[in-house]
Design goal:
The protein is mainly alpha-helical. Helices cover 59% and strands 2% of the residues. It has a two-stranded antiparallel sheet with strand order 1-2. Helix 7 packs across helix 10.
Length: 257
């Protein structure tokens, strides 16, 4: 899989850095053409899953649509030439998910279920790591009170983040080591478009949160406790709507004269 991704990355930049070699150009054009055909098929599947959501939602469908949303929001070469179709479809998928209760809780349930399977040795630890990656890629694309509540609960779950709380069978190598729910939540919150987050968004912090650990966890857990217990409100970038722990904060009605 990593080799395939490397080839795709090379295919993305080669036209800008290599001489105009016809053989190379033809190969890249063939790769792009095949990718675009695959992209068209993926868009068909996304529309089918979106239609299925209208008939009812379950966790499996919500997880699939979350992955579709990330795909449509990415720079994937398969949709590079399909933006006229992909961009409006992305908006439809995002809006449909935000209207559907469980859009964030499904990600949480998936992560916790996989963790149980891993602890019982039914699955390898890498499955849990990949579920966490899905979570912090997808949930920032779904700014909602449900997403905030899910990430807040996960902030309180630090099991596996430190040497003292490592899982009994957690690998100790530094590549693809699964992180705790709290660490995944910190990464997701870093990318969630909150106005005035408690931790600044910059490249230094981004590198630190992606690397894992609990360096920025205290600031986020304090923020979450303020929201949960002390009525703190928040907004998402680009929206005038104010939220608290339970949802939209209604403006006080003006008294009639």
């Amino acid at each position: 899989m990593k080799t395939f991704l490397l080839i795709c990355c090379i295919a993305t930049v080669l036209p800008e850095i290599c001489p105009a070699d016809e053989a190379v150009k033809e190969k890249l054009e063939r790769i792009q053409k095949e990718g675009t055909e695959n992209g068209k098929r993926r868009l068909v599947a996304i529309r089918e899953d979106l239609a299925a959501l209208e008939r009812g939602a379950d966790d499996e469908l919500l997880l699939k649509l979350g992955r579709h949303l990330y795909f449509l929001s990415s720079n994937d070469y398969r949709i590079r030439e399909l933006q006229q179709e992909a961009a409006p479809l992305r908006t439809k998928v995002r809006d449909a998910l935000l209207r559907t209760p469980g859009h964030a809780e499904a990600q949480e349930r998936h992560f916790l279920a996989l963790r149980s399977d891993v602890l019982e040795r039914h699955k390898a630890f890498n499955y849990l790591y990949l579920a966490g990656v899905d979570l912090y890629r997808i949930l920032p694309l779904l700014p909602s009170p449900e997403t905030v509540r899910v990430l807040g609960r996960m902030l309180e779950d630090t099991k596996g983040a430190t040497a003292e709380t490592r899982f009994p069978n957690q690998p100790i190598d530094v590549i693809n080591v699964p992180m705790s729910a709290a660490e995944h939540a910190v990464i997701a919150l870093h990318y969630l478009p909150l106005q005035q987050p408690p931790v600044p968004r910059n490249k230094v912090v981004e590198v630190e949160v992606i690397a894992g650990g609990l360096q920025h966890h205290p600031a986020w857990i304090d923020w979450w406790h303020d929201v949960r217990d002390r009525g703190r409100t928040y907004r998402f970038e680009g929206s005038p709507v104010t939220y608290n722990h339970d949802g939209v904060v209604k403006s006080p009605e003006k008294s009639s004269k």
